[in-house]
Amino acid sequence: MTDNGSEPFPLPLLTSPDPAELPLPPPARPAAGVRLLRGAVYGIPDGSRPLAVDLWLPEDAAGAVPVVVFVHGGGWRKGMRDDAGPRFRDWRPGPFARLAQAGFAVACPDYRLSGEAPHPAQADDLAAVLAWLHTRAADLSLDTGRTVLWGESAGGHLAALTALTRHTRAGSATVTGCVTWYAPSDLPGLAEDHPEGAYDPKDPASRESLLLGGAPADRTEAARDASPVTHVSPDAPPFLILHGTDDTLVPARQSVRLAEALRAAGHQPDLRLLTGGDHLWAGLSDADVEDCYLRTLEFARRCTSA
């Protein structure tokens, strides 16, 4: 390729920058004792937008701190990286600032949505953010050997899938725990878990179909590969699994399936089924929602204790 038809165009100008070498965003201070670096670029997939991560950091930590990676929900189709759901939007300080005040670094990444790329792009993006965090650990004072994944709904599915497939890769953060809130775990089992007629595995417009690039009934291998239960093994990290008994979007049986698979592999997952809870914690009292958050915080502490 030439510039103006004569001189060779400098090829380095056509390549994307290395996210590990880009400058970090300037810090904001959204709450006492918290620094927020909003929108650091961690990945630039071919043919896609740059992917960014927000970093909530303790202001005056003495040494490297453990990491919580929060994965947002939205049916793999939408969502915002800094949104833990409607029950937390009026918290002041918010849930991520509170984790930073408790001594954690919190990373809230974008990932490619199903309208941008099908599975496994989303899990690839989470693997990329784990590698980026490890690469930038010295810059950010992170102890990435103590990393907990936490996700809600579709984000919980992606957190579990990542924790079960990519938790001990060289050159990456080590996942020492995983928290899922009302998350799918067995895509082929959804038809059985929903009330009769409520879910059609042949529907090409379902959230799962858009994730897989085709209806689950037709993309059976992809549906299995995208299911966390498929990847449970004896070396899985500890799990905290929270789900409402009255979830009308993702049946609670999905979380039971994950817990049963983990037990069969020799683990002792902490499964909590919250009576009356619907998706996004609708139907629960404010006290019950706060308890879900506090359980998540305490689990993260246990999984990252030195």
From TrEMBL:
InterPro entries referenced in this protein's UniProt entry, alphabetically: AB_hydrolase_fold (IPR029058), BD-FAE-like_dom (IPR049492), GDXG_lipolytic_enzyme (IPR050300)
Ranges of residues in domain BD-FAE-like: 54-262
UniProt-recorded Gene Ontology molecular function terms: hydrolase activity
Organism: Streptomyces salinarius
Key words of the record: Hydrolase
Keyword Hydrolase attributed: yes
N-terminal signal peptide: none
Highest taxon above the source species: Bacteria
Segments for region (Disordered): 1-27
Any single Pfam family the record assigns to this protein: BD-FAE
PANTHER family: AB HYDROLASE SUPERFAMILY PROTEIN C4A8.06C, ALPHA_BETA HYDROLASE
Name of this chain's protein: Alpha/beta fold hydrolase
